[in-house]
Amino acid sequence: MSEILLQIDGREVEARKGMTILEAAQSAGIFIPTLCHHEKLEAYGACRICTVEVEARGRKNLVAACVYPVEQNLVVRTRSEKIDRIRKMILELLLAHAPDAFALQDLAKEYGADKDRFEKEASFCIHCGLCVRYCAEVKKKNAVGFVDRGTRREISFIPEIASKECWNCKECFPLCPTEALQAAFVLTKALFSP
Amino acid sequence: MDNARIDRIIDKHQGEASSLIQVLLEIQSENHWLPKEALERVSEKLQVPLTRIRHIATFYKTFSLIPKGRHEIHVCTGSSCHVRGATRLLDTVQDLIGIRPGETSSDLRFSLETGNCLGCCALGPEIVVDGKHHSKIAPDNVEDVLKDYD
């Protein structure tokens, strides 16, 4: 019924009301890179790698495709010099945390990001929140969560819950784009069961 | 902190999950810190996951997950107090109670923090104990101020 017509990379795309730009692009077979997006989870908009340029009523704006709802006659560009530059910067910053993550390395190749541009701060976690949200929204166990804030923010398991639930689940492990999660779990296990 | 006191605070807020921060604030001000057992009790009663409570409790500086003393001392190290000798004042406080900023004395009497401008620049150097401002404090009369708190 309420069909919305918009333009993505010069192509006319049909979408339903309430869809995001990312969903509309995916339904039309247009690729937008994502790191923190998962179809089973609420959109989060943390990694900003899906940044696209939208043009509505003559104004250009940069938005995160995974959270921006489609609008009638919206003009979306998923690749441009500006967007590539932004994605390259985001990747270089993320690579300072997780230089060996395959998901990041593949994207880095695409956008020409240099993993040595910024001084390494190998926390291995890029704060995509996939594990935290998957545990809360899909499994409803809340075994893992974020603690602290700013540069000290990190994921942390609650040992009492983790020792009961995680052993048989571990479904969040393959979600992690950097394998930091597994390390956090191993650490929790080591601290909790001597 | 026993469960009865926590329950009383939670009941005051009708057990609403949206009152989580208010509940934590009241536990913090009564108990001076948030013990793990208290967080577990709050989680159970308000039906909020422990991960979320920990996220909030570690986010705000007001909350402490480690024991704090009965009296909280803030020494101002802002620019105005600094030029009026806040460093010497801080040294004296540290010597008197034997702890550094961020620490708590072993008898749980004092916790010490520094603050960058506590708001009374004209009255510096100042220290704030349990929210009460003591202004124009010289290192020599710190002891007089602190002896009233035990």
Name some characteristics of this structure:
heterodimer, A: 194 residues, alpha+beta, Ubiquitin-like (UB roll), 3 domains, two-stranded antiparallel sheet, B: 150 residues, Glutaredoxin, 4-stranded mixed beta sheet, 43% helix, 12% strand
Walk me through the structure.
The complex is a heterodimer of chains A (194) and B (150). With 194 residues, chain A is of the alpha+beta class. In chain A, the strands form two sheets. Chain A has a five-stranded mixed beta sheet with strand order 2-1-5-3-4, sandwiched between helices. Chain A has three domains: 3-78, Roll (Ubiquitin-like (UB roll)); 80-122, no CATH class; 130-192, no CATH class. In chain A, 32% of the residues lie in helices and 18% in strands. Chain B is of the alpha+beta class and 150 residues long. Chain B folds into two domains: 3-59, no CATH class; 71-146, Glutaredoxin (3-Layer(aba) Sandwich), CATH 3.40.30. Helices cover 43% and strands 12% of the residues of chain B. Chain B has helices spanning 3-12, 20-31, 36-46, 50-59, 79-83, 86-97, 142-146; strands at residues 71-76, 110-115, 127-129, 132-134. Chain B has a four-stranded mixed beta sheet with strand order 2-1-3-4, covered by helices on one side. The longest helix of chain B has 12 residues, at 20-31. The interface between A and B is small, with 14 and 8 residues.
